Structures are given as structure tokens and as C-alpha cells.
Amino acid sequence: MKAILALEDGRTFEGEAFGHTGTTTGEVCFNTSMTGYQEIITDPSYRGQIVTMTYPMIGNYGINPEDAESSQPHVRGLVIGELSPVASNWRSRQTLPDYFAEHKIIGIEGVDTRALTKHLRSAGAMRSCISTELSAEEAVQAAKDSAPMEGSDFVKEVSTESNYLWDGESREWTIPNTCTGQVGTYIELPEAKYNIVAYDFGIKWDILRHLRQSGFNVTVVNSRTPAEEVLALKPDGVFLSNGPGDPAALDYIHAEVKKLLGKTPMFGICLGHQILTHAFGGTTYKLKFGHRGGNQPVKDMRTGKISITAQNHGFATDANSLPDNVEITHVNLNDDTVEGFRHKKYPAFSVQYHPEAAPGPNDATYFFGEFAELIEASRK
């Protein structure tokens, strides 16, 4: 079935629908990852967005439940150049179109994603509409009428309603190798040495898996949980997760995190980093087209080391807004934006990117170990 992608500035792209039909709206953005479309689709940080994959062919390895980042897809729609007619992977359990049909997500293929991405780089991420039923003019108007990303609070839509202890499968998947003695497809977990609380702002399952692999027992709590309730659990540390939307709209979260400063070690990722920005007294702003992909270069200002990182965010910390007691530790080499910082007095640090990747490189997984070291140092 014919479909149209319409942007709020009036530009339109034609293609073929797959998965579901109808009309959907959201902020259109692009991701430069070559693999990992399933993880991207199921990442709660993409709530409210229509994602464009710059890699030309998508769907070639199907869908596998073991690689999901949450229990459902969160994208409003998916824009691709070509949909693979075959899902060829022994771990695949479902095709991408069937998965979208099951969850009523609209995909559009046959789009010139190179032209779309160049347009978004010039004009910026913007509101958009995918439709199989509206005219071009109607679809453009639907995009204009949709809610902007600025001021949006999607965290309330994706955060857990009930607190829980993470007990999902966390063993690292591997390929059996008799030469090294690896006989199964999983690497056994280490002893859990630390009990931490993780605020769920839209937490990815692979973050929870990495925390458990790094020796943490994780109690996951709702984004609205008061600081007093968190401290009553007597955690060894608190983790602030990734999530969707505008960090400046989450003042009710900023206030609770601020109460935790100096009371317990804290580590934040992505939205958690931006929330710490506000808790420290700083501000955030919207990037023109964001950082989304597995190839973002980041420099550690303390060591000079450069890592290639996985990122997914449309907002950033204003470096000039940070107080003197906050040290910027990491910067993005593409645009010099803040990618990490630490508090000079309190045991709290964060990074804007994703150490757990999924998808992406593993250059930054050491941060989970640094969190454990911070907890140990705070005990002395």
C-alpha cells in the first residue's frame, strides 16, 4: 500500500507501507547504526519519535525476543530505504513486518533516506506524519498539529508502575568454543556484591543486564518515587536511567534526585545524565538533529583517550550553566557538546552516551566497573 512521509516544513517523501496502516505522527530523526534495528525499535528512549535508519537495507535478520530492550516497540514509525524480503538468521523468530503488524506500528520503505537525512541535518529534527490514508497536504497539516518534543514528558508513559527486583536473563550471550572451554551459549554471572536502586525513566534491558553482569542486584523503581523511599531501601548506590522526551520538563524528578546528592553514590546514563545536570543546577537545550548511532567519537578529558560510542539523544547539557563544583570529563569530538561529568564534592557522575551500547561498540562498558569502584570508595 502506498504511504507518505510528510514533514512540518512541507517536504514529503513517498513509499510503501509495511506492518500496519493508518496515520501516525512524531518527531522524525535519523539513526546511523548499521545494525541493531530491533534494539532501536524497542528502546523506550524513542517514545514519541519516527526513526529513519540511514543504513539502506533493514529487516534482513528478523526479530529475536532475546535482543529486545523492552517488552514492546516504542517508535511511532520507522522509515527505511529497502525492506529485506528475507529474514535470514537462525536466532530469528519473526519478520519485521509481522512484528510491526502485531504491535500496530507503521513502517514506510522505498524512501530516499539519504535525501531525508541531509534535509534533517540542514533543517533539524522536526514533527512529521506517516500516513496511508491522508493526502500530502493533510499529512503536512497533521505533522504541524502534532505535539512538539520540547516540553514533552514521555517518561510517565514508559516508567514501570510497580517496583521490582530485576531477575531477567542477564548472562552474556556467546558462541560455544571447545578450545577455550566455553561449552554453552551463556557466560555465567559473577556474585552480586552491591544492592542498588535504579530509577526507571525508560530503562533499557541491556543496562539492567550489564549492571547484573558487573555484580549489582538491581531494584527498579518508578520515576515518581520520592528520595525518602529510595533511601529507606538503604541502597549501596542509585542509578539514573535513559529515557525519552525533554529533560527540562521533568522538574518533579530533578527535585528528588537533588535530595539524593551526597546521600548515596549515583551514576547516570543519557536522560539520567541530563537529569543530573538539572539537579546540579545546570540547564539543557535541544540539539539541532541530535546524536543517534553507534559511531560517535568521545574524548575523555582526563586521559586523552578517545572512544567510539553508541548514543541516542536530542538534548544536551549547557556547559556554561554548570556550577564550578562540576567537572566536565568527556566531550563529543564532532560538536564539542558535554558527554560526561562528575561532581567534585559528591560521589556522582554520568555520561550522555550508552556504555551498554545495544547496538554499538563496547568501548565504554568500563563505566559499570567505575560505578562499583565509586561505591567501594564511598564505604571507606
What does this structure look like?
- With 380 residues, the chain is an alpha/beta fold.
- The protein is 23% helix and 31% strand.
- The chain contains 10 helices and 21 strands.
- The strands form 4 sheets. It has a 10-stranded mixed sheet with strand order 10-14-13-15-16-21-20-19-17-18, sandwiched between helices.
- Helix 1 links the parallel strand 3 and strand 4.
- Helix 8 crosses helix 9.
- The longest helix has 14 residues.
- The chain is globular, with a radius of gyration of 21 Å.
- The mean pLDDT is 96.
- Composed of two chains; the small (or glutamine) chain promotes the hydrolysis of glutamine to ammonia, which is used by the large (or ammonia) chain to synthesize carbamoyl phosphate. Tetramer of heterodimers (alpha,beta)4.
- Belongs to the CarA family.
- It catalyses: hydrogencarbonate + L-glutamine + 2 ATP + H2O = carbamoyl phosphate + L-glutamate + 2 ADP + phosphate + 2 H(+); L-glutamine + H2O = L-glutamate + NH4(+).
State the assembly state of the protein chains.
single chain
Strand order of the largest sheet: 10-14-13-15-16-21-20-19-17-18
Mean pLDDT: 96
Tell me the distance between the termini.
64 Å
Number of helices: 10
Extended strand count: 21
Structural class: alpha/beta
Helix content: 10-25%
Q: What coarse outline follows from CA principal-axis ratios?
A: globular
Indicate the radius of gyration in whole angstroms: 21 Å
Low-confidence stretches: none
Largest sheet: 10 strands, mixed
Strand content: 25-35%
